Amino acid sequence: MYVAVKGGEQAIDAAHRLLDEERRGDRSLPQVTLDQIAEQLTLAVDRVMNEGSLYDRELASLAIKQARGDMIEAIFLIRATRTTLARFGYAEPLDTQSMRVKRRISAAFKDIPGGQILGPTFDYTHRLLDFSLAADAEPAEAARAPSELRSDMPRVLELLGSEGLMEQPSAEAGEPEDLTQDPLNFPAGRDLRLQNLARGDEGFLLALAYSTQRGYGRTHPFAGEIRLGTVEVSFTPEELGFPIVIGEITITECEMINQFKGSTTVKPQFTRGYGLGFGQCERKVMSMALVDRSLRAGELGEERVAPAQDEEFVLSHSDNVQATGFVEHLKLPHYVDFQSELVLLRRMRAEIDIAKDRLEAAE
Amino acid sequence: MNAPAYNFAYLNEQTKRMIRRAILKAIAVPGYQVPFASREMPMPYGWGTGGVQVTAAVLTPEDTLKVIDQGADDTTNAVSIRKFFVKTAGVATTERTEEASVIQTRHRIPEAPLTEEQILVFQVPIPEPLRFLEPRETETRTMHALEEYGVMHVKLYEDIAQYGEIATTYAYPAKVADRYVFDPSPIPKFDNPKLDNCPALQLFGAGREKRIYAVPPYTKVKSLDFEDHPFEVQSWSEPCALCGSCHSFLDEIVMDDKGTRMFVCSDSDFCARQRGER
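The joint structure predicted for all components is written out below.
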């Protein structure tokens, strides 16, 4: 029993065994394998890799299995694992321009050089339960592009940029800071803000992004370009001194075109918001891009009035591992603090009774 | 498990009656946003759930439906919604504006004039024209009740002060029947004049925000402006590259990364007709 706090070790062990058993479920059914999770719950794996800040499909699949499908628990497991891993250094910046594109769309133009490529998307499906899946129906083979898609698709925002219509990305000189190595201080640069958003909770960012669309810090967004595909990761080992390709990862990138800035004398230009994440995570990178743009309020001379524009509010509460820890810690014993409150409250009530008695006696 | 059979046009009859009551109220008070109990639809909020519910409520088996997005019948979302009604209502569909009795649209009004026989259903993301000036619904409803539209004029004036002109190019606010300021949905302001005195019934559905509003046939719709800064629509320096039209709304097509552009009609049916293909 929970009440027997001291000597609860046996109870804790028993609770863990019960958890293991509940995780296993009906023993007459086969266990779900990591391959099955990695192959068939792809987007769950992507989310865990994203918010866990670790690109490893196998570990993410294991985390999902161990967490019984609880995404934040799985993300937590991955973050904890990340702590144990050796760091070799920083990869070269990813070149998303040379991405091998699987999906690439622009909502700003009807057609773009390289084409609109729908790829695997829920977007235009009707949300009707497909009962054939319950019967394990195998899908028909999908038609694919006859040849490799061009690997140098121009960026939509750069097409606008060449006409001067798009602000140039604000490139801050020097190495970016690293959120995972140093504590976050305010005000934070855009590099740290983007790192924070990249590992931030999808639901939290989604709600914030949504609030900007409903008048709490409007940014006038257009989805300039969203692309999904694989990019090479390069790394320069000290002993070699030149970059070598160490692997390939799947990422999603969103470049948002936002509210223009200018005046009667300064030629107006669109502004931008940026989102990037591991795997296929459009909801996440779109939300990220909207919140990124909102957080640029100060830099762009906009009045900070809405939650999504408040850097401290957003960055301090976006991390779901931190958030769930502090919210759920309320389950831990607080007997001492509560006891102190009880003593105080009883004394205050008693004092009122004493005062009332005195008053009555005086009358 | 077999797939269930759906009621005509997906919604159950009770829901349709509820939506029709909201539509009738909307027609009775032009431009007023009528709250309605919007349902979850099998497409996401933002994809046109409001328009789909309004269409589902007004559709009859004899109707011919046209669905456009950005003016075109072949855009992905228009194709998806059209298929949805073919599947759930079995109605005839068309791409020709004049053949349609119900037209659901996102972001455009067809170039061809509409008639008394037609209903135009708009998909609306944010029904409240004052939303970006005042985020709270309790406030904006009071402002409408008191006909308190000063902030909107101030916003337009600030545009002129900063940019030298009104910098709103779509979802341009207008006043309906000299009473309610309304959001005509994100149609380009190019289309605003078509709202005025239109023979067709114009219905606006916002699913996520749970609002329906209407512009009844032959109703005055006046785009907000100032005497010295009268309302103006967009124009292009070149005609449509396909049909040569000089008075339609043109989409910009990026041809390459060297800055080559082509301008073509956004209304694909209008363009085909101009080219003599229909």
